[in-house]
Design a protein that fits this description.
3 helices
Length: about 80
Amino acid sequence: MGTLDFVQWPAMVVTVISSWLVASQMKWKREAGFWCFLFSNVLWVLWGWHAGAYALILLQVALAAINIRGAYKNE
């Protein structure tokens, strides 16, 4: 196993933490969750590129776009 094989585990942990944060009623936690989600998108794209999981990469790009749109519309 290469180093990038292990990126899926921190990506999963960051995704779970970000989901927890965006469900908060506190604005700063929701904002932190947004940034964590974007970071998890980057991690998943890295792992997806390494693993040849191109559908996962497209999914992460779409999810990032949706999160950015939601943050923009929420201001």
